[in-house]
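If your schedule permits, I should be very grateful for your opinion on a structural question. I would ask you to consider whether the tokens describe a fold that such a sequence might reasonably adopt. Thank you for your consideration; the sequence and its tokens are set out here.
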Amino acid sequence: MDKIIDKKIVIDSCVLIYFCEDNDGGKTEELINMLKENNNGIFMSDISGFEVLKNRQDSEKSINYEKLLNSIEGIPVDSPVFMNAATLCYLYKKIRKVTCREGEEMDPKDKLTGDLIIGGTVLSYENYLLLTSNKKDFPEPYWEVIATGEVGSVEKIKIYLMRPNIAALLSEIQTMEDIKMWPTKKRMHGFRG
């Protein structure tokens, strides 16, 4: 991921929690710092801030959590984000079973609201990317892996840099009857209104 330069990257909650817990010998922190040094904008959805904070409550590492939350810009969860999250939910249900990795399938009924909102956040801004270790939560054909890496000193955790596949999303959405394309300030567009 050292070749990723001048991008805007939303970090999934799971990666933020690895950073805070430091169970990986500081490798997640190194990865995030390297991305920042390469002039990438690093962001988190406000829902990720919530997910990180709820883990902090009983943690001895609460200083790590506060350090992280103060160092990454949050993106508000607003109407366009909710509309895009709802669209993702609709599409995931529509395809019923999505093959994520060979031999592994995602059941759309098990989608967590947080992951949908994080996906909706990335979709709400043009050319934003997603950094996650939970590839199955952001399935093909709607998401594409553009880079991979590993963090962890003992147990290796695969990290994926993904982008939304706008062409696949739009081709599916064109079949929806209630489409309204509407521009938003510095954003892609909401898919449903």
User: Anything to note?
Assistant: Residues 8-181 form a domain with the Rossmann fold fold (CATH 3.40.50.1010). Helices lie at 13-21, 27-37, 46-56, 62-71, 79-94, 113-123, 166-173. The first strand starts at residue 8 and ends at 11.
